[in-house]
Specification:
Elements lengths: L5 H9 L3 H8 L4 H10 L2 H9 L3 H7 L5 H10 L2 H10 L2 H9 L3 H10 L2 H11 L6 H4 L6 E3 L4 H11 L8 E5 L5 E6 H6 L6 H4 L7 E2 L4 H11 L3 E5 L5 E6 H19 L12 H28 L1 H6 L3 H28 L8 H31 L2 H31 L9 H23 L1
Parallel strand pairs: 1-2, 4-5
Antiparallel strand pairs: 2-3, 5-6
């Protein structure tokens, strides 16, 4: 397969050799084309995409960055978009059409293939983050009474419409899913054997309204490549393939990372400055108020700090280590929730474990802090205050870092929203209050 670098493509543009580039770029793998177009200077991106033929464009468009894809969809002529969508599988076509304005999407649905249009309309009714929103309707489904040779002939007639045929779904006369037939077993079966005699009856499936994160968990748990999607009556509706789930896992992981730092939506390296400001400002504003709350706690001990000014030098140590410890706990617990490791039966044990880790770390680090404070200031009581405050704040970090995401999960709020900002606020308050409080009493 042809390989081209970013610099080579840029050189074609700079030398005004678009015709030559058109020939080359259509020989690239779609993933390579998407990556290069994503990285090109903005003035070349739409032109580069326009050079792709309809088939390649249908593979590249879903892999472009969200803002770039929106820009390209806005600039593209409708007739061109119709041709591209006709080349797409129904799940990807539904995603693209779902991004368009209602009047534009309605016009497109009237112009594309009628059968595809009906399938896409049905997919658009489902939540985009559900099994129904992920599934594609192109499937190979055989009736239970069909014989081996009949199924093989059926596959020959439809293989161009369905990619990656590893399994054939077996349905009854009411289109209810009753089994799964691996292609290898089909080929090895005797010609007259029926689907119901050679199928695997132990079928794992997903309800159409199941959340995409739970769908990903099914793929991970059972180590499968394809998952049939059914309705409440177990009628077969479509399938989800592992390549879609890889995207979901990546999306969910990115979403959690963004939420933990207060970003509700994706903010990329080259997102426009104005857009980045809009995404970051709300959480930074909240951070301002949490910082004011923390500073008010420090203000309570203003006289102590004025009398013992060297405390101001040591305060950030207690707060900083507590914040880091709390963020570590938050990450472990949030990840445990996402992977399904935490259940109603073991949550308490997980909380106790994290508190224990916090206390042990506090004792070890606090002991080192006692020695450091004594060496720096020659005051053993100052070391005791610093070490004890460290233990207290590490305990607080373990407690709040584990409790907050669990409580949010029970309230059906995304645990990732228990961000480092909130944890840092609580550990800062706990660290300053314990350190300055002990200093007030003992020093």
């Amino acid at each position: 397969m042809l390989k081209m670098t970013y610099n080579q493509i840029l050189e074609y543009f700079e030398n005004n050799q678009q015709n030559r580039l058109k020939e080359k770029i259509n020989l690239l793998h779609s993933a390579d084309s998407a990556q290069i177009i994503n990285e090109l200077p903005s003035e070349y991106q739409f032109t580069a995409f326009s050079l792709l033929n309809d088939e390649n464009a249908s593979d590249v468009l879903p892999d472009l960055y969200d803002e770039l894809r929106e820009d390209i969809l806005e600039k593209m002529q409708q007739n061109r978009l119709v041709k591209i969508i006709d080349e797409m599988e129904t799940d990807e076509a539904a995603d693209i059409i779902g991004e368009l304005e209602d009047d534009v999407s309605k016009e497109l649905l009237e112009k594309i293939d009628k059968e595809d249009s009906e399938d896409i309309k049905q997919l658009l009714k489902y939540d985009e983050e559900s099994a129904g929103g992920l599934m594609q309707t192109e499937i190979i489904a055989a009736n239970q009474e069909m014989k081996r040779d009949e199924i093989i002939e059926y596959i020959r007639e439809n293989y161009e419409e369905v990619e990656n045929i590893h399994y054939i779904f077996v349905v009854d006369n009411d289109n209810k899913l009753i089994g799964l037939l691996e292609v290898t077993h089909l080929l090895l079966a005797k010609p007259q054997r029926k689907a119901k005699d050679i199928m695997d009856k132990n079928v794992i499936s997903a309800q159409v309204d199941l959340d995409q994160e739970q769908v990903a968990h099914i793929f991970r748990k059972y180590d499968i490549y394809i998952l049939p999607v059914v309705d409440k009556e177990h009628h077969l509706l479509g399938r989800i393939t592992v390549d879609d789930i890889i995207d979901v896992i990546d999306e969910e992981a990115s979403e959690d990372v963004y939420k933990m730092v207060g970003l509700e939506s994706e903010d990329r390296v080259f997102t426009s400055p104005l857009s980045s400001v809009k995404k970051r400002l709300p959480w930074l504003t909240l951070n301002l108020f949490t910082a004011l709350l923390v500073s008010s706690v420090v203000g309570i001990f203003e006289q102590t700090i004025a009398r013992l000014s060297f405390l101001a030098v040591l305060m950030p140590i207690v707060a900083g280590l507590g914040g880091n410890s709390g963020t570590q706990t938050l990450t472990v617990i949030t990840r445990g929730i996402a992977l399904g490791e935490l259940t109603i039966h073991n949550t308490f044990r997980a909380i106790i474990k994290e508190i224990t880790v916090g206390i042990v770390n506090g004792i070890l680090i606090g002991s080192a802090a006692v020695l450091i404070a004594y060496l720096l200031k020659g005051n053993i009581m100052l070391g005791v205050v610093l070490g004890t405050a460290m233990i207290c704040n590490m305990f607080i970090a373990g407690l709040v870092g584990s409790l907050i995401p669990i409580i949010m999960k029970s309230l059906k709020i995304d645990p990732a929203l228990a961000s480092s900002v909130i944890i840092t606020m609580l550990t800062d308050i706990g660290g300053f209050a314990s350190f300055l409080g002990l200093a007030t009493i003992l020093l």
